[in-house]
Each structure stands twice: as structure tokens, then as C-alpha cells.
Amino acid sequence: MSTRPMWMERPRPSTQVIKAIILVVVVLLVVLPFVSIIATSLASQKQVAESGGLVILPTHPTLGAYQDIFQGGVVTRAIIVSGGITVVGTLLSLIVTAALAYALSRPGVFAARPVLLLVLATLFFAPGIIPVYLVVKELGLLGTYASLILPVLVGAFNVVVMRAFFMGIPQEVLDSARIDGASEVTTLTRIVLPLSKAVMAVIGLFYAVSYWNAFFQALLYLNNTAMWPLQLVLRLYVLQGEPLPGSTIANEAGVPPPAESIQMAVVVIATIPILIVYPFLQRYFSRGVLTGAIKG
Amino acid sequence: MNDKISRRTLLRRGAGLGLAATALPGALAACAGSLPGATSGGTGRLPNYIAAKVPKPDEPGNHTGLASGYWHYPTDLVKSVPEVPGSGGDVTALVITYSPPPSPLSGNQYWQELNRRLGVNLQPDVVDEGDWQSKLPTVMASGNLPDFILLFGSVPQELAFLEDKCEDLTPYLAGDAVRQYPNLANIPTYAWIPTSLGGRIYGLPQDRGRMGDGMFIQQNLADQAGMSQLKNTDDFTRLMQELNQPKHGRWAMGAAVNSIYNLGFFQQVFGVPNNWSVDKNGKFTSALETDGTREAVSYLRQLFQKGLFHPEANNMTTDQAKNAFYGGQITVYQDGFSAFQTTWHAVAAVNPGFKTRVIVPFASSGGRGSYYLGAGTFGVTALKKASKKRIEELLRVANFLAAPFGTEEYFFINNGIEGVDYTLDAHGNPLITQRGQAEMTLPIGYGGHDYITGPPWVYVDTQYPDFVRTVHQEIELQLPLGIADPSVGLYSGTAAQQGATLAQLAVDKISPIVAGRAPMSSYGSFLQEWRSQGGDQMRKEYQQAFSSVHKRSRT
Amino acid sequence: MWRDRLMLVLMLPGIVYFLLFFYVPLLGNIVAFQDYVPFIGFANSPFVGLQNFTEMFSDPDFWQAVVNTLEISFLQLVFFFPAPILLALLLNTLISTRIRRLVQSVVYLPHFISWVIIVAIFEQILGGAGVIDQMLRDHGMQTLNIIGNPAMFKPLVTSQVIWQGTGWGTVIFLAVLTNVDVDLYEAAAVDGASNWRRMRHITLPSLKSITILLLILQLGNVLNVNFQQILLQRDSVGPQAAEVLNTFVYYHGIVNGDWGLSTAVGLVQGVVGAILVIGANKLAHVFGEPGIYQ
């Protein structure tokens, strides 16, 4: 499939070959370890021990590690919790971040500079764990799902990046909208946001990934394990090795899967949802969004 | 993954790593052992030991360190708690966990039944070890403490915290008072010693037996080499050279991170005291200050120069070291003695031809070596200050959780409900079901994970009776060599505050000497640094605590 | 102000967030000047003045950690920072959308692997018992000895960061490139500009602002390097080569619950970062770039 536009010359074969080699190498460097991760998640204790850790190809693949993780429904439940937190959190974060970044991106807005500095300073200094805990406690958020979202609602980095994008929208575009009689709100919703699909997708991805991967808030603020998100639950699977002696417990499943397999299965389980979502976001990374909008 | 025995184990896993914590070798752990019986460093009155009646073990033990062994489940279970201990309210607890979270209470029949039998609504707040050091201080600062709070790892101002916020359990448990709670009275005395600070009992123990670390060896190879019994360091060097075959991907020795190339084992060989020694004038000397430790370091340096260590030695996670041992990439490494059983099982699954043993420490130039006894308990669980009635209720709950092997209560905690959590095999031994595995992972007892308090340590293995026999033999060989850490039960604020940093200092400064990156002579400057950064202060505090306890016990 | 009322309303939730969850708890950083004991609280812990700072500055291990941190940051700035830009440019020249998307959705994956596993993967390939050294040993050749060699430690951790972060880092640059007006390319091509000239005069300038912005932010982070990554490998070469500020804080503060010292180091990192960012931003203005703020 070639989408080469008319004006673009046919690339030289030598360049093509070099490009292809670089890409193949880059992709292999990424893919091979991943294959090994998946292989290890399917391997037996014997194979893990003999290979000294990671396995390249499982000789007798078993889903034992996955069965171990999914039994009892704890992980399934945690996936639902994490999914919910990620969706709600990402939406809220995007709205608040975009609003703040947009206001800070317009020239001459009252107090914009001090507010920007206020935001920037948060990049360098971090409040301690205990003071934040006390704030969360005072707000009555302990033990609520809100405690997984509100304390990490906005990232200064994301505000700065989004603001830079908004500032990159040519002033003429906004001016022409205003001449057409559009209000500030209309300009924002009809012109600016449609022009910013790419940055929204990127920042949304950043937020989504951080909500999806977060465990620390849950660790501190939730003590009911039934409310735990996926990553906190999975952390405990990574730690789970063998039962303590004094009680090596005979169980129906026989020999428990090796710690490494569980660890790798955890990587796979935690990564698959991102793998699924990414192609949807990719659509917004396509070319010509800006041109289309201006012409249209 | 085994929890570790050292009470102030250096918690080195950063947030969220899948690594096992590694206990430091005896000499470095701030608090890693105690003298059996009366000669202990400094304790006030402890609970009297009163043995509970349990079915006869297959390998009988005693209460001074030889844990009983079983390879059958007894059929004549004893009921040890006649009345429901609780009065129906909530009981909260902050505990560590090494297991996945249990399935939620609403659908968890085991947890519901446990609550019914305890007569409380048990709500444990569970934290994995990697995050423990973030959560514990946060809970301490938050002002609302749970009923049970496990103290493990670094607890700043521990004594002041205990005095201010936690109940002094001495009136409830010291001497014969513990009779009220027969299962607590059945916990061996050595496990209680670390629960006592400043002469008062501030918490409940989790018995881990008397053993500390063990130097695991693939004994079949030693037997093949005709060196089943090692008599001195020359023997050891020769055996290691024999077993070392890098070309075939096999190295003589492995070492887990923070173990300083298994230094702890060689300190035992070179006659070094367990962490501290105290002379008759009450003067304390650190193990690090002895010539024996220098000799051990110098010996390890030779072994390293000969290329006898696995290339990743000393930076292997405990998991990696274990796997390398199971797979035969290393033939010797040090781990917690409590890892013996899982090692046995894993080796049986991977390399059934291997014969796993623990090396009995020999002396460097021949004769008897010494063995560092463990701290006896995993941690100490304190109780939030409360009314007498409430404390008694909580102690009754603890008494239930401490029910020993052979009781109905123990059987329930470890096996759950028949038909739901376990089924019986042909020999009448319970087999845990998948559902059971998902329901029972509350860290209050199942699988030995008893982080409120638990029963005396036992070895149970229905699958490998040979293991139970072997472990008994090994313990019987090593216990007589046992030496304890005289600082256990003495409070040093510096040890509580600086202990982990000082331990890391030793790791950081001694490892390069062994690896040949620093000269042997730099040991002296390390020692100076260690003394000035808190070592001397620790000595002073231990000496003061020691003399004040001794004065008190004389009056 | 009234004129800007809509903008102020838009700002409000964000401002409230930062005040509530950042600036209020930031007051807790007072513990840098205290011998803070959690169960006693901020109000009652004794003040010790600058003791936490003097303790830190007089410790030679602290300065060794500063030096190591700066060296690693420098390597990352030189070798890691440009990597995503180069990869993004390469991806951008691909004509086939399908291949571009496929490559894109593969290369960002390492971002989701935890450091424990990344370190294990590197060990298994480059370690003394790893695939390469074992092969060399089989053929009687000198082994590489990359892991466990203090001299190789910094290049090693830099290469790990490149492996882990390059693909993920392209996301932002690719998003910027989508905003480049295709008409510009077409016009240039019609004017006879070669592929290479179009890259130099259209593509690269379009990435300039975002690159400078990220570079400035990166400078603010020079005293922060990846904690878990270093912690996991520090003992293979010892602190002389591998202690960085974040591991220093961990071993001297966090493991002991010494919040005063940890916070003091954090403040120093913050002040240095802020100074560098302010300086770099000024410098950007000199060259006529907007930087991160005006």
C-alpha cells in the first residue's frame, strides 16, 4: 500500500534499504525480549531454572501462571476497577488540564504568568507522602475511589506541553474565527479542540497510562483489598513465590508455577489493555488534521 | 517467598520490585538472635512457657529450638479455644503480606467463617514488603492506629512510640498471667525476647524457630568429590575449586545481594560473635570489629580471586540465586534456613538427582565452628492503647491465631472449610482447592504467614517425609553450635534509626574488598567510618541498656 | 480581569488542584529543618536548623553521588535525548501508513516493562554468565565483562534507558509532526526542493520549539536519575560508581525513616533543577525561542 503523494519523488533504493535495516533492527530489539517475556510466562519451573531465568521458547508451554493469577476472580475485579479509574480519571484530567493550558496559552490573560510559574514550580519540588496523606484524610477521601484520582489529577508537564501546542495554533486562525463573530467558548470548542486532536490523544495517553499503572495512592489510601486496582494486586503476585516452610501446602494444582513465570504473566496481563487501546489513539496521529480544518 | 527472620532486615526493594528481601548476615542485622534461656542480654519478665497438649509429632522437638516435624496430619485434632474470643465488633490490623490479596469478604466463605469463629469482623490492612517502609510511618503519623500494628523494618523512635501509643502487655502476659491465653503460653520463650523492650512486653511474636541462615550445598557433588564432610577452610577451598566449572556454566558459589558474598557464613567459620559480644564488664564489641571478620573477608577475597563466584554473585536477587541453585548453575549459596523446605521441593521438581543440604559450620583451622541463631520472631505486633476489656478481647483473638499444629483452630486457619477450600486425599491429608488458594491468603496464618501472631514453628511435609527427617538432623547438628546476639531485647535508638544505613555501609565498603576493587587495608577506614556514623553510639546505648536491665534484675 | 472571566473560570479547577494537593502539603517540607518523627507530628518535632543540610554537604558519599548523577544525566542528555527525535523523523519519512503504525505500536512497548525485568534481560544477555560471555568462554575467548565492571556501568544504564524509552519518546514528536501543513511540503517540492532540503527546512524547524521545551524540562531533572533502575544494579559495581542522589537518599534517609534528610536532599534537587530551568529558559529567549515561559 503506497500513499505517496504526487509531488513526492520515488525514494532511492539505497535509502530504502538502509531505512528498512534500521527499522528491522529496532523492531527486533524490542520484539525479541517480548517474545522471551511471553515464553517465560508459559514455562515450567524446570525450564526457568535451567535457563537461569528467561526462557526463549517454552518446551512444554503451560498456562499455569495465568490460571494462578486469575483464580478466585480477584484480578478480574481489579481489572474492572482499574479500567474505571483510568477512563474517569483520564477524562477529568484532560478536561482540567486542557482548560488550564488553554487559559495559560492565550496572550495577555490576567494573572497568567504567576499561575504558570505556580504550575512550573511543581515540577521541581515534591510534597512528602505524609502531608499529602493528611490532606486526603482531612478531605474525607480515605477509602474512596476519588483518592486514586484527585491527588494526581493534573501533571505540570502535561500542562506545559499542551500549552505549547495551543500556542502553536496560528493566531490568524483564531482571529478569523473571532471576526466571524464566534465567542470565546465557540472558538475553543469549534476551532481549538478539533485542531488539537493529536495533542489531546498524546496527553490522554500519558494520563491513561499513569492511571493504569498507578498503585501508590491505592496502597496508601485504600485498606479494603476489594477496592484495589490491578497494579496493586499484581504487585503481590510478583512477590508471591512459594509458601513458607512449616506448611508447604499440598494443593490440587500440584507444583506452583515458578515466580518468574508469574512475574512475566503479570507484565503480559498489564500490557495487553494498552496494546489494545493504542491503535485507536493512533488514528489521531494521522497527518493533515490542521490543513483539513483550515480548509474546511 | 520466605519472609526473613531478621527483625530489622534492610528493606532494599524500592517501590514495586519483584525481588525478595534479603536479610543481612547475622553480623550486620541490627537485631538478629538472642541467647537461649536465662543468659539473655536484657529482658524483664517474659511469659512463662507452658506447653499445650497436641498430638504426638512424627519427629518430636522441644521448645528451645528444635521444631517438631510431621509427615502425617494427625486425626485426633484437639480443640484449644473453647469459647468464641470476640464480641462481634471490628478488629483492624496493619500487617505485611507475601501473598496476593484474598477474594473479597462478601464471597469469601473462609473469611466469613474465620470471622464467625473469632467473633469479630477482622479487617486487615495488608501491605507488601516493598512498600512497607512507606506505609508504616504514614499510618504512625495519621493518628488513627489499627488495633494490631506489626512493627517490622525500621521504626523510628520505636521505644517512644511503644510507650506513647501502644499498650504495655506486661500485666497481661508476664509470668503466669499468660495462662489466660494458653496458646500464647505455648510460644517458646526465645520468640518472646525481642518483644520486650526496656524490660516491658510490648507485643506478640511470630515464631520462626531458632535457626538463622543456612549455607545450602548441592551435597551430591561434594559426595562425588569424596568430600562429604568439610573440616576446615582448606577443605572448603579445595571442594569449591573442584566444583567450579565455568566452561560448563557452573560456578562453585553464588551470593544474593546484600549478603557480602555470604560473609555471614564465614564469620561463623572464623569464630566471630553473632552481631555483638558482651564481656563480663558489660562492654560491647561489634562483630565487625573482630579480627575474625577481617580474616573472613580476606578468605573470601581469595575465593573471589580464584574465580569461584558466579559472575552475578552479590548482585543476584534472592530469586535469581535460588533459581541458579535449583538449576545447578551454582553449587553453594547462603539463604535463610527457612528456605530449606521450598528449596527441597523446587529441586525435587527441577533436578531430582540433586541432594540438598546445609553445611554445618566448621572452624577455619579445624574443629567446631559456630552457628548464628536467628532472632526467633519475624517482627513484633503491638496493640493500640485501649481499655482493659478491649485488650483482653484482642489477646483472646491472638490466642486463637496462635493455636498450634494439631488443633482444630490451626487446621481451620490453614485448610479452611472442607469441600470448599480443601478436600482430603487418600491418606486423609488435606489438599487445598483452587478456591481455597484464592480465599485463604489473608496474612494471618495460612501458609505460615502469621503476621499478627502465630503458633510455634513446625515442619510439616506430607509429600516428602525425608525432608522432615533431614531438617531435623540438620537442626540437631547446628543448634549445639548456636550463639545468640546479646543485643536482642536491648533498645538502642541509634540502631533503630541508623541500623539500616550502617548495614548498607558494611555492604558498600566490604564488597569491593572481596571483589578486589579496594585493598584489604581499606577495612580499617571502613571501621572508622562505621564507628563515627553510629557504631560507637550504638555500643554506648547497648551498654547503658544492658547495665540498667541488669541493675533492675538484681534489685 | 472581567474581560478574562472565562479564562479565569477555565483556570480555576487546575489552580485549586495545585493549591490543595501540592502547595498545602508542600508546607510539610518544613521537616527538612526538623528531626521529624512521624508519630509526634510536624508541630511537635524538634527543629534542628540546617543540621540536615550540613550533614548532607559534609558527607563525601553525597558528593560522589552528585558526580555520578551528573555523569549519568549528561550521558542521557547526549545519547538518549536525541534518540526519540531521530526515530520519529525516520518513522515520519515512511510512506506506508501501515508499516509506520505497525512499527510505532511495537517500539513503545518497552516503556511498560518494569526495571526488574529489564535489568534481568540485560543481565541474561550481557552478564558474565549471559549468552554472549558464555559463547566467548566456549570458544576460549576473553569475556566482555560488561555487567559488574564499574567503568561500564554508566554506558550500560544509559543503553537501558535508550532501549526502554526511545519508542515511547517518539509519541510527542510524532504528534507535533502531524500538525505540519502538508501544503508546505508540496509547495517546496514543486519549487524543486529535495527530500533532504524539505527535511531541513520544514520538518526540523517544526520540531524546534517542542525540542527546546523538552530539553529545558530535562535540564531541570539533571539531579534525578531513574531510582529503581540504579538501585537494582548498584551492588554489582558498588556505590563508588553507581550511587546516585536518589539511591543516596534511599540508603541514608528512607530505609531509616529519616524524613528530614530525605526532604532536605529533595529540596536541594528542586532548587538546582529550578535554577537550571530558569537559566536555560533565559538562554532560549536570547535565541528568540519561547522556551517554557516568557
Write the layout of secondary structure elements.
The complex is a heterotrimer of chains A (296), B (555) and C (294).
Chain A: H1 13-41, H2 45-51, H3 64-70, H4 74-105, H5 112-121, H6 129-138, H7 156-168, H8 171-179, H9 184-195, H10 197-213, H11 216-221, H12 230-239, H13 259-282, H14 289-295
Helix pairs in contact in A: 1-13, 3-13, 4-7, 4-10, 4-12, 7-10, 8-9, 10-13, 12-13
Chain B: E1 68-70, E2 90-97, H1 109-118, E3 121-128, H2 129-142, E4 148-151, H3 158-165, H4 170-173, H5 182-185, H6 189-192, E5 196-197, E6 200-201, E7 204-207, E8 213-218, H7 219-224, H8 233-243, E9 251-253, H9 263-269, E10 276-278, E11 284-286, H10 291-305, H11 318-326, E12 330-336, H12 340-350, E13 356-358, E14 371-372, E15 377-383, H13 388-401, H14 408-415, E16 422-424, E17 430-432, H15 434-439, E18 458-460, H16 465-478, E19 482-483, H17 493-514, H18 522-554
Chain C: H1 5-26, H2 51-57, H3 60-80, H4 82-93, H5 97-107, H6 115-126, H7 131-138, H8 153-178, H9 182-190, H10 195-219, H11 227-237, H12 239-242, H13 245-252, H14 259-286
Describe this structure in words.
- The complex is a heterotrimer of chains A (296), B (555) and C (294).
- With 296 residues, chain A is mostly helical.
- Chain A is built from 14 helices and no strands.
- Chain A is flat.
- In chain A, 48% of the residues are buried.
- Chain B is an alpha/beta fold.
- In chain B, strands 3-2-4-15-7 form a five-stranded mixed beta sheet. Chain B has a four-stranded mixed beta sheet with strand order 9-12-8-13.
- Chain B starts with 67 loop residues before the first strand and ends with a helix.
- Mean pLDDT of chain B is 87; it is low at 1-42.
- Helices cover 69% and strands 0% of the residues of chain C.
- Chain C has helices at residues 5-26, 51-57, 60-80, 82-93, 97-107, 115-126, 131-138, 153-178, 182-190, 195-219, 227-237, 239-242, 245-252, 259-286.
- Chain C has 294 residues and is mostly helical.
- The two termini of chain C are 20 Å apart.
- Chain C has 14 helices and no strands.
- Chains A and C meet through helix 1, helix 4, helix 5, helix 6 and helix 7 of A and helix 1, helix 4, helix 5, helix 6 and helix 8 of C.
